[in-house]
Write a structure and sequence with these properties.
Layout lengths: L26 E10 L4 H11 L4 E10 L4 E10 L1 H12 L4 E6 H4 L2 E12 L2 H13 L3 E5 L3 E8 L1 H11 L4 E6 L3 E4 L3
Antiparallel strand pairs: 1-3, 1-4, 2-3, 5-7, 5-8, 5-9, 6-7
GO biological process, one term: L-valine biosynthetic process
Pathway: Amino-acid biosynthesis; L-isoleucine biosynthesis; L-isoleucine from 2-oxobutanoate: step 1/4; Amino-acid biosynthesis; L-valine biosynthesis; L-valine from pyruvate: step 1/4
GO molecular function, one term: acetolactate synthase activity
């Protein structure tokens, strides 16, 4: 009769080591959720996040199929792999949800955001704000003698960089749309 010898301290063959190897590192994920466009659906989706203590970094919602009355909710969230899987599973169980896609794991994506950035400055700071706006391809959509409102589109990181550069030049206010994202290719 053959005996099984396990080194002391080894958990390789232990019954207590059956849990999958999930990381405790938080990851940023972009989720696309297709839902019926009806009252209360967004509140139910948001309720799922708030009720379990999950954070939403960005949220955009719009009707994408007028004939079928379907909306697309794009959510950017952060969590461990276990938390992200739990979020996707729970979203999929909500009745008016037709599909949940984790764009982060499905491959390359295109992400864009729009921001309006108000800057109040004069003299050299005003000139510098215009110069930086030109570099970032931001458009001045409103102008007074004391301020500008710039419109900028791009990745969230690009918008963050533009806003950070506008702070010392007289940043007054920022309004952001949140991330809109699609997977690349077919």
């Amino acid at each position: 009769m053959a005996a099984l010898h396990i080194k002391k301290g080894s958990t390789k063959h232990s019954a207590y080591n059956l849990r999958p190897n999930f990381s405790d590192t938080k990851e940023r994920h972009t989720l696309a959720v297709m839902v019926d466009n009806e009252p209360g659906v967004l509140a139910r989706v948001i309720g799922l996040f708030s009720g379990r203590g999950y954070n939403i970094e960005s949220l955009t919602v719009a009707e994408v199929d007028h004939m079928g009355h379907h909306s697309r909710i794009t959510i950017v969230t952060e969590g461990t792999p276990q938390v992200i899987e739990q979020i996707k599973a729970q979203l999929g169980r909500i009745v008016p949800v037709h599909g949940v896609h984790d764009l982060t794991v499905e491959g390359a994506t295109v992400e864009r955001e729009l921001a309006l950035v108000k800057v109040a400055s004069s003299g050299d700071k005003r000139v510098e704000a215009l110069r930086l706006a030109d570099i970032f391809r931001a458009n001045a959509v409103d102008s007074t003698l004391e301020s500008f409102v710039f419109q900028i589109t791009g990745t969230p990181e690009k918008i963050d960089a533009f806003v950070d550069l506008m702070r010392p030049l007289g940043l007054v206010e920022v309004a952001r749309t949140g991330v809109a994202a699609l997977s690349r290719g077919i």
